[in-house]
Amino acid sequence: MLFGGRDGRPLATIEGAEMTLRKTAADSALGASYLAREDARTLLMIGAGPQARAQIQAMCAARPSIERVRVWNRTPAKARSLAAALADKAVEVEAVEDLAGAAPDADIVCAATAATDPVLRGAWLSPGTHVDLVGSFTPSMRERK
User: What value, to the nearest 5°, has the Cα angle with vertex 76 and ends 120 and 134?
Assistant: First the structure.
């Protein structure tokens, strides 16, 4: 709840999970605005959960040069569903099933997973790729090797 400082009136009720999604994505986008190449054209999103949608939106806002978003998920149907949900946007969005094949073409890679074993290999990346690992939030989780 947000209350007015002068009279204490309620001004807004904000659901916590939605704020967490947006805040995490905004942090990632801020990092990309400083660290990713300004001419970044392709974003590879690893993961297709709620955080993925927020990450894609924030990254495209931070880097308006992005023309193509590729989505990979361990469950291909979820990647296809997210790609379809974002299909009306100004960028091309497609689901991919070959992560190793998609990674070298990405200018920005964002991973938001609950992986305990790495899903992204550094050897797949091209020089200058910006990598944002969002999902690893416990010592047992790991998205990149």
Answer: 40
The helix/strand/coil state of 95 is: strand
Residue 11 and residue 4 in contact, taking contact as beta carbons nearer than 8 Å: yes
**pLDDT (tens digit, 9 = 90+) per residue, 35-60?**
999 999 999 999 999 999 999 999 99
With bands split at pLDDT 50, 70 and 90, how would you rate the model's confidence at 145?
A: low
Residue 96 near residue 74 (C-beta atoms within 8 A): no
What is the Cα–Cα distance from 16 to 2, expressed in whole angstroms? 12
How far apart CA 21 and CA 54 sit, in angstroms, is: 6
Residue 109 to residue 28: CA distance in whole angstroms: 11
3-state secondary structure of 90: coil
State pTM to two decimals.
0.86
| Domains defined for the chain, CATH in brackets | 12-133 (3.40.50.720)
CA nearest to 54, candidates 137, 139, 132, 140: 132
CA separation, residue 115 to residues 18, 40, 100 (Å): 22, 26, 16
